[in-house]
Amino acid sequence: MLLAASLAAGAASAADLVISNWDGYMAPDIADAFKAATGLEIEVVNHATNEEIMGKLMASGGKGYDVVFVSSPFAEILNGQGLAEPIDKAAVPNLANLYPEATTLAYDPGNSFSVPYTWGTTGLCYRSDLVQGTPDSWLNLLQPTDALKGKTTMLATDRWLMAAGELAKGYSVNEKDPAKLEEVKNLLIEAKKTLLAYDDTTFYSKLVSGEASLVHAWDGWCNYGIGENKDIKFVVPKEGSDLWIDTIVVMKSSEHKDAAMKFINFILDAKNHAWAAQNILYKVPNKAAMDSLDKALAEQYPNMAMAPADLVKYELLRDLGSAQKDYSRIVSEIKAAN
Amino acid sequence: MPLSFNAARPNLLAAPGVAWLVAFMVVPCVLVLSYAFFERGVWGGVEYTFTLENFARVVDPLYAKIFLNSARIALTATVVAILIAYPAAYAISRAPRMTQPILLFFAVLPFWSNYLIRTYAWIVLLNREGLINNLLRSLGYTGEPLSMLYTEAAVITGLVYNYLPFVILAIYSTLSRLNPELMEASRDLGAGPVRTFLRVTLPLTMPGVAAGGVFVFVLSIGNFVTPALLGGGRFQMVGNLVYDQFLTANDWPFGAALGAALIATMIVLLLVQARATAHASGERRGEAAQ
Predict the structure, then answer these.
(1) I need a surface site. Which of A335, B34, B217, B253 has the fewest CB within 10 A?
(2) CB-count burial class (<10 Å; 0-12, 13-18, 19+) for B32
(3) CA angle A39, A40, A41 (to 5 degrees)
(4) Does residue B136 register a pLDDT over 80?
(5) Do residues A69 and A284 touch, judged by C-beta distance below 8 A?
(6) How much is the pLDDT for A13?
(7) Which of A52, A196, A202 should be substituted to probe chain B, the one whose Cβ sees the most B Cβ atoms within 10 Å?
(8) Residue B45, pLDDT above cutoff 80
(9) Which residue of A has its CA nearest to B244?
(10) Closest CB to B232 among A196, A322, A327
(11) Which residue of A has its CA nearest to B152?
């Protein structure tokens, strides 16, 4: 009984901060490092998808979490729902490490309720030894040459699946016009006939094995393929791409907001933020961190060297509001088409 | 007093099982299915305004087509599974008594490994750079590698493979309980082996075939892992649709309505199968009495 009571007390006081993030998205020793720096205990919990953590936050009004990592459209929703705490600029001096481009992002200019953690784009990842010429258009993926038929994959998540068609047609990645979406749908249904598979998780290993020659990929994930085979290359098609950003948000319901701000400041430290670039091969919007990277990294993974000014030319994925329903339906129609 | 205790005992014994099912199966299912009557919130989640629109969407041609397509794939898997399982079960039931448990052990062996691992094993076998294609190449085949993975046939293969042991067990159990004297009588009366099988053995084992078949069908139509992995996401089944509504589209009410339709289909099938089995065993008792 006494033991149980002391255990319960121990559990309650153990963590000053509860942080939810994707598995493997922070240094495994982050809790120890943070404790050494600030004396504060953190408990890291994982979520598999944005939707999963959003479901939990919506159900509880954000209670139980102090800091969450979500993609920018979801940060937008949290703010829209009044669940996001304004960032206390005075408590986060390391915000100065961010690229100027990362402080004027359309969903949150001035980083009022979110801080960008990683950013990147989506494009074509391909085996330069198996693909003739250099792919430079979304149509190389959607209307492949005969040699590439059955050797391409596309991302299955609705926003990126739709974006490939929208960009090929010259439309916005947040397009809501039903007539334009209908055109995109028809293009993607035709493209489906030439696809090997829809694949969000193993596309780069399909390239490595040679099962696929050209795949729709996030830049950071293409790097995993490049790491295994130097013939693998990444290109952003000439029609453009999307800009995706994973962000850090402090919950309004948190009772440890000061500690939460300290955590964000800790992450934005050049050395800590560089961890993400070095280990998950994603670009980070932190100038000090990127400048500190070994030049060899950018030589091996050229897309790591993409300039922020070029990156922010691409259109941000925004929350679609009620049009999300239309996207889901269109994606169902595409997946159900023969 | 002892009498009523005896009468009550079966209920008492069943109580923990029933309580478990109610607490962890019925209550959560009812909670989730009740979402089907409400609206999707603008930001996802559930808005508690009563509506029947979600059910109207289930019968929308798009989703009805996905439903029918899933039923077709599940039915194909069922038929193939029965065609493979029946001879296997027959062979096991005719094997010497001592070896039957060993053969059954091998039939059920795959169940001891994880479903996902077994499904991934098929990817390793079937992909264009996989074991089968490599084997063909080492045997001197020089053409284009065979595209076996990410096809409907791959999905059906995966479903059949995963549920086959159920069907073998179900058919074996009816075959092993069959009175051999009935077959002897049939042959004594002049029927050949084929006729004996078609007129005596097969009809008497239909309850096992039906039980195994309904099992495969029900599990296949709601499956979402196999179509995602072996179909490469190119074949949308109802299971995937439900999964997408809950996890990507964030439309829980519609997902719940689809789930309700799926559960209703399963219950109808199970009831039909239970009735058919009761009917068949009643018929057998009737024949025995004559």
Answers:
(1) B34
(2) middle
(3) 125
(4) yes
(5) no
(6) 43
(7) A196
(8) no
(9) A328
(10) A196
(11) A338
